[in-house]
Specification:
Blueprint: H1 11-36, H2 43-79, H3 86-111, H4 116-143, H5 145-151, H6 154-165, H7 170-180, H8 183-193, H9 195-216
Length: 217
């Protein structure tokens, strides 16, 4: 009988990456329409946009900071000279100042929802974030995921994921997982996590969906 090889399961990481990229894209598109005057923005919507932007930026920072703190050391220990993380770490160092600017732009919109120039500046910042995330995540998945699959043990990978998950925002992250996962990926997550995950998603889904409708229509 052939022994089962315990390899990392990257499905959750792929969904997290897709959710960050998808949210940056749809926020940039939404705020651009507000800036053009083709989509109305009252005080409640502006506050909702600002809150969503702030939570998204916190999640992006949490993700890349824990890649630096938890995942990179595992890769260096497991793969040695096979991995060069300098370019990805440089991207991370450029992200935090941009996230701060995006947060400030969102707060400005909340304070002046009728000011299309303010919306325009935020749309530009979100477009920059969108493009940086697209480039960085595509590079990371192309270069790092094969190394994880080849060199990192399933046990080490689960430990990294468990540590990262400790700082997650359940009411935000779980329904976004459902939003951005493909059906087969969602089924795989439910299979791995058991029925408790399905119950938790059902509990937090309504509030998240209301927030989505207010922001994105």
């Amino acid at each position: 009988m052939t022994a089962t090889v315990d390899r990392p399961n990257l499905v959750a990481f792929r969904i997290v990456h897709r959710a960050m990229r998808g949210d940056a894209r749809r926020l940039a598109d939404t705020v651009e329409r507000i800036a053009r005057g083709t989509s109305p923005c009252g005080a409640a919507r502006a506050r909702a946009v600002a809150g969503y932007v702030d939570t998204l930026c916190d999640g992006i920072h949490h993700h890349h900071a824990n890649e630096d703190r938890l995942l990179w050391p595992v890769l260096e220990r497991s793969a040695g000279a096979e991995v060069d993380l300098s370019a990805l770490s440089d991207d991370h160092s450029h992200l935090d100042p941009l996230l701060d600017q995006v947060r400030a732009g969102a707060r400005a919109l909340a304070a002046a929802p009728a000011d299309r120039a303010v919306a325009g500046r935020l749309a530009t910042l979100l477009g920059t974030l969108r493009d940086l995330l697209d480039e960085h995540i595509e590079d990371e998945e192309r270069t790092i995921f094969p190394i994880i699959d080849r060199y990192v043990s399933g046990a080490d990978w689960r430990q990294v994921e468990d540590q990262i998950r400790k700082g997650s925002q359940i009411r935000f992250d779980l329904p976004r997982m459902e939003r951005f996962a493909a059906p087969d990926e969602l089924a795989e997550l439910y299979r791995m996590a058991g029925p408790g995950l399905r119950i938790m998603v059902a509990l937090v889904r309504p509030g998240y969906r209301r927030r989505e409708r207010l922001i994105f229509g």
